[in-house]
Write a structure and sequence with these properties.
alpha+beta
Length: 455
């Protein structure tokens, strides 16, 4: 092979090595990021699962509340419809009652007018009765006077007749007196005729007066009967008026109570409508919140699915890294070299592990390996996948001196010794989160107390 071809081949191998190194570095960085993301994702997954469970419970409660609210709304709408029907019926009854009340008031006004007319008529009738009784008294007085005059006239006639008989008896004996009497006889006869005519007229007038008195008595009796009937009718009318007034008062009281009840019903209806509006708004809000919660839940489930897929991928990467785990002690001459280059193991004298007073306990991911007895000063290199950690140990201490992680927080945690492990901030642990590596300094007694059997 020519030198040029060999040089080209060497260059190609160098380029391939550089590409492989860059790929390894990129893969290591990606694995570190994945490791950090995996830790955060695990925590987020736990929180998300708790939140999802809580959200599902809240969603169930919200759906139950929404169902109850819908039932309440339906019941309230039915009650509102019944109340509206009752209100319409009450309003119609109130209208009929008001119409009846107006008719009753008109009838009462008419009855009061009729009663006033009857009272006026009764007063006039009483006045006529009083006048008739006065006229009857005057007529009775005149009649009594006429009776007295008639009796007197009859007595005078009897006396005159007696005198005439005496004159006739003495006529034959007293011719002279007869002649004298003859001269006065026409005047006496004229007087007698006048007296007879007056008597006849008085008797006729007496008959007329008696007829008038009888008619007046009959009219008085009829008037008294009519007056009694009128008084009875007036009493009945007054009773009817009192009953109508009482009924009107009761009707007004009932109307007032009905109006108050109607007002209360209207207020209740208004309150029910306001409550229904509030319930509808609450239902709308609850429905909106439910939809938002469902959307959030769907997004959370999608995010959870993505997170679970990411976690599965990270766990697969971690499992693959654990399968390629390499842990070896370094030669002191090469401990400062690149951790990515595998130096040869250090040859040292074999010592009895029972002499160790301190042990290194290494955990990668979720797997913890057998304790390493710390017998002498030295370095260990831990390789899993693309992750590399360099550990410095003494008989009583451990320290992370180099690592492929990005932030080197594990290096900054410093040294752990048997003297400071109970007082330092991190205790007996050094943790490289990005590389999923945990180092712990333990004593024999601590391991035995935890049930770890030492070889």
């Amino acid at each position: 092979m020519s030198p040029i071809a060999a040089r080209k081949k060497t260059i190609i191998w160098m380029i391939a090595a550089i590409v492989l190194a860059v790929s390894s570095i990129a893969l290591g960085a990606g694995l570190i990021v994945s490791h950090n993301s995996l830790t955060d994702t695990r925590n987020q997954l736990t929180d998300t699962q708790s939140a999802l469970s809580s959200t599902q419970s809240t969603l169930a409660d919200t759906e139950n509340s929404l169902s109850a609210a819908k039932d309440t709304l339906a019941s309230t709408e039915a009650t509102l419809a019944d109340t509206q029907t009752t209100l319409d019926t009450t309003a119609a009854a109130l209208t009929d009652t008001q119409t009846t009340l107006a008719s009753t008031e008109a009838t009462l006004a008419e009855t009061q007018g009729t009663l006033a007319d009857r009272e006026t008529e009764l007063s006039a009738t009483k006045d006529n009765l009083a006048s008739t009784e006065a006229t009857l008294a005057e007529t009775q007085t005149a009649l009594n006077s006429r009776d007295t005059t008639l009796a007197s006239t009859k007595d005078t006639l009897m006396i005159t007749q007696t005198k005439l008989a005496a004159v006739k008896d003495t006529l034959s004996t007293t011719q002279n007196e007869l002649d004298t009497l003859k001269a006065s006889l026409p005047a006496k006869e004229y007087e007698l005729e006048n007296t007879k005519e007056a008597l006849a007229a008085t008797e006729a007038e007496l008959a007329v007066t008696q007829n008038t008195l009888t008619a007046a008595q009959t009219e008085l009796s009829d008037t008294k009967t009519s007056l009694s009937a009128t008084e009875t009718e007036l009493t009945a009318t007054k009773d009817t008026l009192a009953a109508a007034t009482t009924e009107l008062s009761d009707t007004k009281t009932a109307l007032t109570a009905t109006e108050a009840e109607l007002t209360t019903t209207k207020d209740s209806l208004t309150a029910k409508e306001a409550e229904l509006t509030t319930t509808k708004d609450t239902l709308t809000t609850a429905t909106t919140e439910l939809e938002a919660t469902k959307a959030t839940l769907a997004a959370t489930e999608a995010e959870l699915t993505t997170t679970q897929e990411t976690l599965a991928d990270a766990q697969a990467i971690l499992a693959a890294s654990n399968e390629s785990l390499s842990f070896a002690k370094l030669n002191p001459a090469t401990r400062g070299t690149d951790p990515g280059i595998a130096p040869s193991p250090m040859a040292s004298a074999v010592r009895d592990p029972s002499e160790a007073v301190a042990f290194l306990l290494v955990t990668v991911g979720t797997k913890t390996y057998e304790p390493i007895p710390l017998l002498e000063d030295g370095y260990y290199r831990l390789i899993h996948g693309v992750c590399v950690n360099i550990i410095h140990v003494t008989g009583t201490s451990i320290e992370m001196t180099d690592a492929s992680c990005a932030d080197h927080d594990c290096i900054a945690q410093g040294i752990v010794t048997l003297e400071n492990k109970d007082t330092r901030e991190g205790g007996s642990y050094i943790i490289c989160q990005q590389n999923f590596v945990t180092l712990r300094l333990c004593t024999r007694a601590e391991l035995e107390a935890e049930g770890i059997v030492l070889q």
